[in-house]
Automatic annotation (TrEMBL):
Molecular function, one GO term: ATP binding
The protein's Enzyme Commission number: 2.7.4.6
Keywords, ordered alphabetically: ATP-binding, Kinase, Nucleotide-binding, Nucleus, Transferase
Localization: Nucleus
UniProt-annotated binding residues for ATP: 11, 59, 87, 93, 104, 114
Entry's Gene Ontology cellular component terms: exon-exon junction complex
Family named by the database record: Belongs to the NDK family.
Active-site residues annotated for this sequence: 117
Shown segment, full-protein numbering: 146 to 295 of 295
Biological processes, Gene Ontology terms: CTP biosynthetic process; GTP biosynthetic process; response to hydrogen peroxide; RNA splicing; UTP biosynthetic process
Protein name: Nucleoside diphosphate kinase
UniProt keyword annotation of Hydrolase present: no
Amino acid sequence: EKMEQTFIMIKPDGVQRGLVGEIICRFEKKGFYLKGLKFITVDQSFAEKHYADLSAKPFFAGLVEYIISGPVVAMIWEGKGVVATGRTIIGATNPAASAPGTIRGDFAIDIGRNVIHGSDSVESARKEIALWFPEGPVNWQNSLHPWIYE
Ligand code: DAT
Ligand code: MG
């Protein structure tokens, strides 16, 4: 099977609202493998780097302010199709349009408080993992692997 990695971040509102366990649980139970995890507060220049592609948007300053407003949980998750499936688990960008059963559909109301980030492509996952985890992923193999993959 072709394994991929994605970058997932629980934003400051997700941390404040006590959603860390619930969110990790959804990725874990699906069968994805946790390959990196850190609980950190980032500064403005780091947040601007993470969201560099959106620097021309009118909401950019507010977005950066929100991301640096408290600690976040940064994670690497691995699995077949984890980039696209991770986005499906997260739900649409605007929680008003996120389906029930998705993280944003279940736990968020406003687009500027949408609880979680997930990479939108294999290429942006690679860039985001390099930015947030310069030390690289944790190297381990889940012993349940043959029970999850055929
Ligand atoms: P996503 O987080 O679903 O990948 P994105 O990359 O387009 O969405 O934007 C990053 C974040 O910026 C998003 O989670 C919330 C915020 N955002 C996006 N579009 C917005 C808008 N029109 N108004 C306010 N905030 C917005
Ligand atoms: Mg995005």
